[in-house]
Amino acid sequence: MEKFVVHGPCRLTGEVKISGAKNSAVAILPATLLVKGKCHLENVPNISDIRSYIEILESLGSKFEYISPNEFIIDNTNVNSAIASYELTSKFRASYYLLGALLGRFNEVQISLPGGCNLGARPIDQHIKAFEKLGATVEVKNGNVYAKKKDALKGAHIFLDVVSVGATMNAILAATLAEGTTIIENVAKEPHVVDLANFLNSLGANIKGAGTDTIKITGVKELKQVSCYSIIPDQIETGTFMVAAAATKGDVTITNCIPKHMEPITAKFREAGIEVYENGSSIRVKMDKRPNSFSIKTSPYPGFPTDMQPQMCILLAIANGTGIIVENIWESRFQYTDELVKMGADISAHGTTAIVKGVDKLYGSPVQSHDLRAGAAMIIAGLVCEGVTEVYNTHHILRGYENIVEKFNSLGANIEYVKDDTEGLAK
Ligand code: EPZ
Question: How many domains does the chain have?
Fold first, then answer.
């Protein structure tokens, strides 16, 4: 059984470099399928979700030439299959981007229903609606999604019922090579949506309005890359290190990040009395006392990101006073609070709301990582608390954080990654 063993408490100090954004890379990798040739990408995070994506693309016929683990050239000239294996695509959520990308290039596509973190119901009805508006027929059967088009997809007016990152990006992927103009309204405005549009535009696509409520795509006949594309830094990894710095009463400079993307988090930090200094592409976080309590309500960008909710809960767990978290995106994103209670936190979570009464100290305990961000929160809790914390289900964390142990240890943490077949399950 694999686990992270975190020896607490510690005070994080020094400098840490942020990796490329997972949620950009998982869309940009399949987007390269729209090019019948080569694409050169850099700042790609070396995480297990990306390695899974690479495996899927290789199974379809893509060839990879590595310059480093974070930079490679993908050659999609000989991709001749649009049937992705159930075993590979069912592993993670973002495999749904294969639908939009492959539908742009082929007439028939098949992938399994996407897997991923257990955050409650994760429908893809808005993705399907977008494909159907563009003229495709889509069928969900036996755990698979089948999408077909007779001729080229045709530009359409698509109004999304809910603001969905995945449906917005999938609609962009499918509409890029469609005939005519597509207007997508009520879209997601996350930094990774803008990154995907910038990447496709750098190949010759005509996508306007990414980052606003309406996106207009004028279909083009083909795409071609002229220069290497660098994926943006990861907003959530940046926020995770910001929280870890503040929670351990540390002083950390986070480099290779985009401070503008961090505004909803920075605003809460200042409310909590945490010092935050922005300087070009770096952010310094400094703290020397318990934070003031605060409240958050998650919402689509530029609102407070749901993917930072569990990490912020650690700050509230050790804050002076009581804070409230309202989770508006995912119905089951408070499962991790039971783990924090084991560590001495005072949290009561019901439905979409968690009430967190700050305590003086947390104590080491064996804990489960329920999902990617909850897992990161467990590591931060381990850094803060007295004693040893064992974090199980490490695979969730490794899906989305590159070199997480090395990065934390370089800041003064003491975390070991232990693979021990004789260990029992954490209770
Ligand atoms: C993306 O998931 C991210 N994943 C998630 O990050 C993130 O939590 C989420 O966006 C919200 O920011 C990737 O980018 C790979 P949505 P996605 O479609 O696209 C509802 C992480 O930790 N909805 O924006 O799947 C849905 O139920 C992960 O990195 C529909 O009703 O999220 C949810 O309530 C976890 N129908 C809301 O919309 C649909 O067809 C937002 O979901 C699609 C979504």
Answer: 2
CB 89 within 8 Å of CB 116: no
Pocket flag, ligand 1, residue 245 (CB < 6 Å): no
Strand order in the sheet with 275-279: 13-17, 251-255, 282-286, 275-279
Residue ending a domain, among 215, 230, 245, is 230
Domain with 182 in it: 22-230
Contact (Cβ atoms closer than 8 angstroms) between residue 259 and residue 232: no
Which tokens go with 35? 């090019």
Task: Pick the atom of ligand 1 nearest to 126's CA.
Answer: 40
Q: What is the pLDDT of residue 360?
A: 96
Q: Is the pLDDT at 120 greater than 70, yes or no?
A: no
Cβ within 8 Å of residue 313, ≥6 positions away: 325, 336, 337, 340, 347, 354, 356, 377
Mean pLDDT of 6-17: 98
Dist. CA 157 → ligand 1 center (Å): 22
Q: Where is 313: in which H helix or E strand?
A: helix 309-317
Catalytic residue, from 117, 257, 313, 385: name it: 117
Confidence check: pLDDT of 89 > 90: no
Please check whether residue 114 is in contact with residue 96, taking contact to mean a CB–CB distance below 8 angstroms.
yes
- Reduced to 3 DSSP states, what percent helix, strand and coil does the chain have, rounded to the nearest 5? 35, 30, 40
Pairing of strands 353-357, 322-326: antiparallel
- pLDDT band, very low/low/confident/very high, at 394 (cuts 50, 70, 90): very high
Whether residues 277 and 217 fall in one domain: no
Q: Of 213, 230, 247, which residue is a domain's last?
A: 230
pTM attached to this predicted model: 0.97
CB atoms within 10 A of CB 85: 15
Alpha helices in 93-181 (DSSP H): 97-105, 125-133, 165-175
Can you give the pLDDT at residue 426? 42
Please check the confidence at residue 416 and state whether its pLDDT lies above 70.
Answer: yes
Q: Are 413 and 278 part of one and the same domain?
A: yes
Q: In this structure, are residues 65 and 81 in contact, taking their beta carbons and an 8 Å threshold? A: no
